[in-house]
Design a protein that fits this description.
Pfam families: ABC1. Keywords: ATP-binding, Cell inner membrane, Cell membrane, Kinase, Membrane, Nucleotide-binding, Transferase, Transmembrane, Transmembrane helix, Ubiquinone, Ubiquinone biosynthesis. This is Probable protein kinase UbiB. InterPro entries: ABC1_dom (IPR004147), Kinase-like_dom_sf (IPR011009), UbiB (IPR010232), UbiB_bact (IPR045308), UbiB_kinase (IPR050154). The protein has four domains: 96 residues, no CATH class; 103 residues, Phosphorylase Kinase, domain 1 (2-Layer Sandwich); 126 residues, no CATH class; 61 residues. Helix content is 60%, strand content 7%. It has 21 helices and eleven strands. Strand 2 and strand 3 form a beta hairpin. Helix 3 runs parallel beside helix 5, helix 4 packs across helix 9 and helix 14 packs across helix 15. The longest helix is centred in the last third of the chain and has 54 residues. The protein is extended, with a radius of gyration of 35 Å. The chain binds adenosine-5'-triphosphate. Adenosine-5'-triphosphate binds next to strand 3 and strand 4.
Amino acid sequence: MSFVSSFKRAYQVIAIFLHYGLDELLPKKLTPWYFRLWRRSLFWLRNRHKHRPGGERLKLAMQELGPVYIKFGQMLSTRRDLLSDDWAYELAMLQDRVPPFDSKLAREAIETELKAPIESLFDDFDDTPLASASISQVHTAILKSNGKKVVLKVLRPNVEQQILADLQLMRQTSQLLETILGPGNRLRPAEVVDDYRTTILGELNLKLEALNTVRLRNNFIDSDALYVPYVYEELCYPRLMVMERIDGVPVSDIAALKAQGTNLKLLAEKGVQLFFTQVFRDNFFHADMHPGNIFVSRQHPDNPSYIGLDCGIMGTLSDTDTRYLAENFLAFFNRDYHRIAQLYVESGWVSPDTDMQAFEQAVKVVCEPMFNKPLNEISFGHVLLELFRTARSFHIIVQPQLVLLEKTLLYIEGLGRQLYPQLDLWQTAKPFLEEWMSHQVGPKAMFSKAKKHMPYWTDKLPELPELIYDNLKLGRNLLGSQQQMLDKYLRHQQRSHTSNYLLITSAVLLICGTILFNQDVTLWLARACIAAGVVFWLVGWRSRPKIRKF
Ligand SMILES: Nc1ncnc2c1ncn2[C@@H]1O[C@H](COP(=O)(O)OP(=O)(O)OP(=O)(O)O)[C@@H](O)[C@H]1O
């Protein structure tokens, strides 16, 4: 992007920002005198939406600024630790549906990736897109080789440049804000923008998305809870993805789900189970669960299954994090706050020099009121959110992967309760977590871990005697050389002590000699002292050890 177009974009962003009066919503700290002076000099850009509440103004501004800001707003809506609930609610309503781009451009982009005309591989390519989102556009067609219905998802032209330019502007602004706010501020704008950058850049590579989709599909290939469309890997490129076309009811269309007689209670429970299975069994979870990406199959409404799309953003946790997370949930439902605080330290999420008593107390203050609600109103997502919020006030930086998980969980719960308001999350998740934990600790766990590592050991076992022999030999040589090094070191120390002793004696003798020299009576004694001092100095200097490395 040239300087002129970057400047134009920056002006456009500022103009929209001021037209929605967002500057009036900034805290005093962020509006120093020079900012207010600058604002007054742009008097012609008035706030035209004075009558609307702040959250709505921010939402409308994001909508007008385009896809990057829309997605940013959606992401912000999940950061309830940073935003008040009404603002988060407004931002969550941002819709990611944008006008389609010219199908000629879509054709060109597809053919560039395929390096072949569309007609050579597909029949009935529909120029009218099935859907048009911020980053990509989806067209339907029939695959010539097998006659199956497919969709072609293609990136918008120049979307990378636009996103990178907008990201750069966001980054500069966030850095400026960070400087004004000073260290230790709660909003951490630069961190929020960096989180977003990672997320959105991940979505720009459809080849990566294709690989994620294949992995998720394989994880649930025999499942009656989740169906993931088949991906034609050989037809996937960084800017194009070809996959099976699915036919389902959008999960947000509750009326249509009811009309086809879907068992909503079962569907809601399956949603929660799916989340726990992805996190705890597979350690690979879909982290972009908005309604446009989840459908419900039209088959078997009495035993419904989900259909998952758009695996651009997937999350994984380390083994230790997964285990501590499960223990955290169990400890929470057993009201064991001490254990929760302990888990945060054991897992390394908080530093060991944290004031544990104060932290435990803070955890209790957060968790206890949740038990005043009926179980079917308790939200795991909120528990995690509040725990992370507490941890943050103890200056703990929560890892992005855990934030991603917390957001997904909040979404899944929201979805579950929308489908079936009486959903009891704990009853649904507890058996799963307990079963999982039993596989992680105790003799059963030891046995299954040993079983898991058996092929590795079978492979490595024949090398073992040779490795033992080599290591013993290495150990013996090492011991020998260590002994030699120690001897050298001791000798060095000894020489150094002797030399220091001689040099100090020489200094004493020389000082005494000089003093006696001035008193005429003991002239011979003075000479003797100085002579002895010189001899001691010479010997001491010569016996200095040489500088060497051990
Ligand atoms: N395999 C498919 N079969 C049928 N429809 C599909 C398929 N894949 C995508 N779609 C349709 O296209 C829409 C956009 O797809 P997708 O969510 O993958 O795009 P996107 O650009 O990643 O959008 P966003 O990131 O905003 O969710 C979906 O909501 C769905 O309606």
